[in-house]
Specification:
about 140 residues; mainly alpha; 434 Repressor (Amino-terminal Domain); 2 domains; 8 helices; about 0% strand
C-alpha cells in the first residue's frame, strides 16, 4: 500500500485505521502480534483500526507502527498526516495560536492559491533556508 496515493481530502476518522489494518494484513502480522510489538493492548489496536479511537498520540507508538509496518521514508509524512487527521490536525492548533506570523503567512497563501509547481518551488526555497541555517549552526559549533 502507498500512503502517498490516498487523497488528503478524503481522510476521515476511519482512514488511518483502515490503512494500518491493510498494511498489517499485507505483511501477514496479526493484531495481537502488532500490539505486542508496540506494547499496547490488542483491543486498543483493534479500536484504532476500526476508527473507534484516534491515532496514538505517543510518538513511540507511531514510530513503532512506521518501523513494524515498514512504511517507506517517502511515505512517512503522509502517514503522519493521516494519523493527525483523526484528531482534526490538533497538533497544529497550538503552534498557530502562538505564532501570529504563521497565521498571517497562511492567510496570504490561501489568497494566493498557488499551483503545484509554485508549491514545489516554495518547498525547495524553504529546504534551502533550513539547510543554510543548519550549516551556519554547524559552523558556530566548530568555531567554539
Amino acid at each position: 500500500m502507498n500512503f502517498n496515493d490516498i487523497d488528503l481530502l478524503t481522510y476521515d476518522k476511519y482512514t488511518f485505521g483502515k490503512c494500518i489494518r491493510r498494511q498489517r494484513e499485507e505483511l501477514g502480522i496479526s493484531v495481537r502480534g502488532l500490539a505486542k510489538n508496540l506494547n499496547i493492548s490488542p483491543v486498543y489496536l483493534s479500536d484504532i483500526e476500526r476508527g473507534n479511537r484516534y491515532a496514538p498520540v505517543k510518538s513511540k507508538i507511531l514510530n513503532g507502527l512506521i518501523e513494524t509496518l515498514k512504511i517507506p521514508d517517502d511515505q512517512i509524512d503522509s502517514f503522519y498526516d493521516m494519523a493527525y487527521a483523526t484528531k482534526g490536525y490538533s497538533e497544529y492548533s497550538k503552534y498557530l495560536m502562538e505564532n501570529r506570523n504563521v497565521r498571517d503567512f497562511l492567510r496570504k497563501v490561501m489568497k494566493a492559491d498557488f499551483s503545484s509547481l509554485e508549491w514545489t518551488y516554495i518547498n525547495e526555497v524553504l529546504d534551502d533556508m533550513l539547510n543554510n541555517r543548519e550549516n551556519k549552526d554547524n559552523m558556530k559549533t566548530k568555531v567554539k
